[in-house]
């Protein structure tokens, strides 16, 4: 069996080829933060990784998946991009055999409820990869107490140009010695945090929350075009990816 460092390195390398990144954390760190309905029922020292798609996932993971998919969106009930993530994660995990691994995707709901299986933003924060900015962080909020303001994560390099895709649980691997690494709060000033939450909640379609600070990389023009095209009209772009 691999050590934690070996597992981390292997998974990181495999996912990197697809433009995906992973960061380890313990289930206990996640469970301490969320309400009981969102907790994950494993030993508190259980090893997990949160998976982030970087801007290059589209070109390194998604387009190659589309090109290799001979069945043409074989499972049309599922979003094509979600299928690509799932396929990349399967490939990466299969290359590290002999572990009981469970994957919880961002879009999966607990059966019979409308609650997600996992809150990937909280997972991202406790892994140290991204900082989750929430209404409760603001000392003098400009919003009324009953106004719903959704929280948003920022990555130190990609700022808002990434997505939190999944949590991988190594069900029988306990890592009591994993050291907690707090995420970087890159918005030191409260006005900027309010601005971020306003952009994310009120104008998320204009993408401006993703540029609250200058990122090292953004989604390509093609990727932005794909996401801004309604899912029912994406087949033209899919055909284009297949043909080139
Ligand atoms: C449901 C959902 C929505 C819903 C409701 C949003 C919401 N937050 O409830 C709707 C449809 C409105 C929505 C919209 C959008 N969404 Co959305 N959504 C989700 C989804 C599937 C679940 C979120 C959820 O149900 N949260 C439940 C609430 C209760 O959680 P919470 O508010 O975080 O509360 C918890 C924390 O506060 C925690 N907690 C308490 N104290 C503390 C303290 C600390 C320090 C920490 C860390 C945690 C913590 O405990 C609480 C739970 O008990 C997530 C993916 C996922 N599986 O997590 C994506 C997700 C949040 N959405 C995302 C995005 C990008 C969007 C959109 C921009 C559209 C899009 N996909 O492009 C818009 C923007 C919002 C808007 N203006 O409409 C991204 C956010 C990425 C980021 N950078 O943070 C996510 C993570 C999806 C992804 N794949 O990356 N979304």
UniProtKB/TrEMBL annotation:
UniProt keyword list: Cytoplasm, FAD, Flavoprotein, FMN, NADP, Oxidoreductase
One GO term (biological process): cobalamin metabolic process
UniProt GO molecular function: cyanocobalamin reductase (cyanide-eliminating) (NADP+) activity; demethylase activity; FAD binding
Cellular component, GO annotation: cytoplasm
CDD domains (alphabetical): MMACHC-like (cd12959)
Top-level taxon: Eukaryota
Cofactor field: FAD; FMN
Family per record: Belongs to the MMACHC family.
Designated name of the protein: Cyanocobalamin reductase (cyanide-eliminating)
Source organism: Daphnia galeata
């Amino acid at each position: 069996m691999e050590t934690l460092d070996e597992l981390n390195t292997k998974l990181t390398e495999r996912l990197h080829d697809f433009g995906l990144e992973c960061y380890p954390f313990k289930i206990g760190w996640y469970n301490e933060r969320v309400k009981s309905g969102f907790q994950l029922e494993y030993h508190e020292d259980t090893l997990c990784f949160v998976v982030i798609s970087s801007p290059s996932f589209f070109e390194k993971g998604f387009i190659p998946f589309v090109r290799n998919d001979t069945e043409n969106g074989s499972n049309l009930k599922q979003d094509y991009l979600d299928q690509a993530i799932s396929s990349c994660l399967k490939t990466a995990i299969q290359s590290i055999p002999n572990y009981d691994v469970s994957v919880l995707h961002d879009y999966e709901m607990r059966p019979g409820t409308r609650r997600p299986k996992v809150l990937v933003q909280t997972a991202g924060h406790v892994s140290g990869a991204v900082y989750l900015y929430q209404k409760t962080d603001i000392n003098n909020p400009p919003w009324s107490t009953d106004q719903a303001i959704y929280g948003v994560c920022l990555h130190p390099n990609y700022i808002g140009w990434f997505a939190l895709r999944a949590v991988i649980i190594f069900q029988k691997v306990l890592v009591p010695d994993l050291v907690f690494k707090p995420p970087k709060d890159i918005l030191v000033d409260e006005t900027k945090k309010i601005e971020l939450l306003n952009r994310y909640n009120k104008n998320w379609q204009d993408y401006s929350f993703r540029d609250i600070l200058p990122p090292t990389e953004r989604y390509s023009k093609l990727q932005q075009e794909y996401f801004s095209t309604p899912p029912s009209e994406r087949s033209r772009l899919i055909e284009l990816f297949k043909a080139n």
